[in-house]
Specification:
Shape: globular
Oligomer: single chain
Strand order of the largest sheet: 4-3-2-1-15-16
CATH superfamily of the largest domain: Metallo-dependent phosphatases
Distance between the termini: 44 Å
Structural class: alpha/beta
Number of strands: 19
Length: 386
């Protein structure tokens, strides 16, 4: 029995609000489904969609991709697939766990028979059971383990969680969906096909293997170069792919299959000391990284006298699809504190309404300004539920 394990397709995600990047996610999913033709079934371990209520366009593209591929698809719910807040309110109290997914696209996909939704259920896929465990916040680890005990012995366990101790670029260690390793001890699974961690082939001693996301998720996975008077590569672009699970008897063998990157994605960190050096460094960067269809993030670091006009720096690139310039430099002089009745009144209102969370909101606003929306979201959710 061959199961093609794919994960974290995040269909509908448009990185930097670029329709071209949204298309990249669809193309990666379609390529993964084509690979699924060599398997008996395709298993998606969560975050099939980027939001709980994807657009009509996203749903239509999904339907077209699945029908064109002609594969048998099984899926579990990821943290992007359903309401985080409502799940926390109701987790552990659903008489039919599948109903915890409420009015999500996954239930629609299941009812249309485009994919079988497995949420605390097992499916016999030809002598092999797949048991699906939908994403669960770690606050409910005890209930989560209790539900896992429903699985038939020798199952391929499908989860959408990180596990404490796994080394990954994403998510961070304090992620709300990181389960203790003890949750999985002594359970009768044959193999854990995992989602949520975006690193292709991340592994854990508990027996979990992550397929990783199908496309590059954020700037932390970009090919990264540092400039300190000259350019030096700091990191290769993150590898993406799927995993073919071959179950024979009481053993499961794994075959990783890579998916090639669809466009150049560069993170260029410029460590500079003066404005003049910034312009010369960007000129060099444009010669190396200004490629057709590329997405480039320029980060400026250092202590610099005088202001930088980021628009002028971005204009040095003419071929790239998108150039994001983030100024992280600081002035050698201390910043002048904001003064005035309006600012003081705004701060007073924030402290009055939000209390200690006022500082968290300000930090989140800074992250959003810098394009780090996911980091801002995690910061706010952590503050909200702590």
């Amino acid at each position: 029995m061959k199961i093609l394990h794919i994960s974290d397709a995040h269909l509908g995600r448009a990185q930097y609000h670029l329709p071209e990047r949204e298309e990249d996610y669809f193309k990666a999913f379609e390529e993964a489904l084509r690979l699924g033709k060599s398997a008996d079934v395709v298993l998606v371990t969560g975050d099939l969609f980027d939001t709980r209520r994807p657009s009509n366009k996203t749903l239509l593209r999904f339907v077209e991709a699945v029908e064109a591929a002609g594969v048998v698809l099984y899926a579990i719910g990821g943290n992007h697939d359903f309401s985080y807040v409502r799940y926390r309110a109701e987790a552990g109290r659903c008489p039919r766990p599948r109903e915890c997914l409420y009015d999500t696209a996954l239930r629609l996909v299941d009812r249309m028979r485009l994919a079988r939704l497995l949420c605390w259920e097992a499916a016999d896929v030809g002598g092999v059971y797949i048991f699906g465990a939908c994403a669960t916040p770690r606050d409910y680890a005890a209930e989560y383990r209790g539900l896992l005990q429903r699985m038939p012995p020798g199952s391929v366990l499908a989860i959408h969680q990180a596990v404490e101790g796994v080394k990954a670029r994403y998510p961070a260690e304090d992620d709300d969906y990181t389960m203790p390793q003890a949750v999985f001890q002594g359970l009768p699974y044959l193999h854990i096909a995992a989602g949520h961690v975006h690193d292709h082939l991340a592994k854990h001693p508990a027996g979990a293997v992550w397929a990783g996301s199908l496309e590059i998720w954020d700037v932390g996975e970009f090919e990264t170069w540092d400039y300190r008077g000259g350019f030096e590569k700091a990191q290769d672009v993150a590898q993406k792919g799927v995993v073919l699970i071959d179950v024979a008897g009481k053993a499961a063998s794994l075959k990783p299959i890579s998916l090639p990157p669809r466009r150049p994605l560069y993170r260029v960190r410029l460590f500079i000391r003066e404005v003049k050096e910034a312009f010369s460094a960007v000129e060099e960067a444009a010669k190396l990284f200004d490629r057709e269809g590329a997405v480039v993030r320029l980060e400026l670091w250092g202590v610099v006298e005088g202001g930088l006009k980021t628009g002028q720096l971005a204009s040095r690139f003419s071929k790239a699809l998108h150039v994001d310039v983030v100024d992280r430099t600081s002035s050698p002089q201390k910043a002048v504190a904001l003064r005035g009745t309006a600012v003081e009144e705004l701060w007073r209102l924030m402290k009055e309404k939000l209390g200690p969370h006022a500082d968290v909101v300000l930090k989140a606003m800074e992250l959003i300004r810098d394009g780090e929306k996911e980091a801002a979201k995690r910061l706010l959710l952590k503050a909200l539920y702590d």
